[in-house]
Amino acid sequence: MAEIVIASGKGGVGKSTLSSSLSVLLSEKKIAIVDADAEAPNLHLIFNVNSWEKEIEYREKSIAKIDYSGCIQCFLCQEVCTYEAISKENNFPKIKEFLCEGCGACKVICPRQVISIKKNNLSGWIKIGKTKYGPFVSSELDVGQPNSGKLVTEEKNIARSWLKDGLVKNIIVDSAAGIGCQVIASMSGASHAILIAEPTKSSLSDLKRAFYLAEHFRIKSYIVVNKYNLNENFHEIDDFARQNDLEIIGRIPYDKNVAKSMVQRKTLIEFSPESEASKAIKEIANIVETFMD
Ligand code: SF4
Ligand code: SF4
């Protein structure tokens, strides 16, 4: 089996276009598709998934709760809270839920034992659905909730359970941008990383960060250069690949069909299978297929 993560270190460089089109082209390999960008999920739009088979509420953060009936207004809890998550209101301590980290220091110090640490309100949702090309798991963080790697880990656990049950044989993970905890969770346990970049200095610098993260997890990385023809004199991605013994498995040209396909809520490969970008992605799919069972 292969668990292939598409990452970039930066948003807007073509990750979802590549992930969705690879999912279409490699669907015969029995794939599960994971949209691992809980802050800005978008694969359900590209795959035109309008309903979910299952939506699971996800609660991650623990916060302090006070039972005021026993509070003696000593404010030791406020003193001990290094996160400044306890204010004074009407002469009683008040937990600022947004700041509380659930560390439990206030619970320990409270002389009346009236503070408990509880799982808070909703953090987000895990959503399970179907595309024409394989089972699909996505997620969505609730407004104001912190960036959550755990949510992505839960998504991947669901996809891995499909693998275990023989429903799928391979997993494609479209990771979030950057190298934050969602991307760390996306990479953790993956077999291959496809790192996509545009031919600019800033995109290369983001690609490097993604590569070093993949290296940390000992994941074999490959590079795809998107919109390569917009800056053909930029050779630094090639230099970086050479220096780090990385294979560039594809170069996708700039293609107006990419934007048009998104407007139509279709994968590029479905919208314009013979476009120049689609042709380049087909060649990439031929290589990625060799990673899979
Ligand atoms: S649980 Fe920790 S962060 Fe939250 S209010 Fe208590 S001391 Fe502060
Ligand atoms: S430490 Fe306990 S008793 Fe003292 S103010 Fe806080 S909640 Fe009330």
Short characterization:
With 293 residues, this protein is α/β, with parallel strands linked by helices. The protein is built from 11 helices and 13 strands. Helix 1 packs across helix 11 and helix 5 packs parallel to helix 6.
Give the oligomeric state: single chain
**Helix-strand topology string:** EHEHEEHEEHEEEHEHEHEHEHHH
Q: What's the total helix number? A: 11
User: Approximately how much beta-strand content do the residues carry?
Assistant: 25-35%
CATH fold topology of the largest domain: Rossmann fold
Instruction: List the uncertain runs.
Output: none
Describe the main β-sheet briefly.
9 strands, mixed
Distance between the first and last residues' Cα: 5 Å
Total individual domains: 2
Q: Which structural class should the secondary elements be placed in?
A: alpha/beta
Which CATH architecture of the largest domain would you pick? 3-Layer(aba) Sandwich
Description:
The longest helix has 16 residues, at 149-164. The chain has 2 domains: 2-59 and 123-289, Rossmann fold (3-Layer(aba) Sandwich), CATH 3.40.50.300; 62-119, Alpha-Beta Plaits. α1 packs across α11 (276-289) and α5 (149-164) packs parallel to α6. It contains 11 helices and 13 strands. The N and C termini lie close together (5 Å). Strands 3-8-9-2-10-1-11-12-13 form a 9-stranded mixed β-sheet, sandwiched between helices. The chain has helices at residues 15-25, 43-46, 76-80, 105-109, 149-164, 181-187, 201-216, 236-243, 256-263, 268-271, 276-289; strands at residues 2-7, 31-36, 54-58, 62-66, 86-89, 92-95, 115-119, 124-131, 134-141, 170-175, 192-197, 220-226, 247-252. With 293 residues, it is an alpha/beta fold. Bound molecules: iron/sulfur cluster (2 copies). One iron/sulfur cluster (SF4) is lined by residues 66, 71-77, 93, 110-112, 114-115.
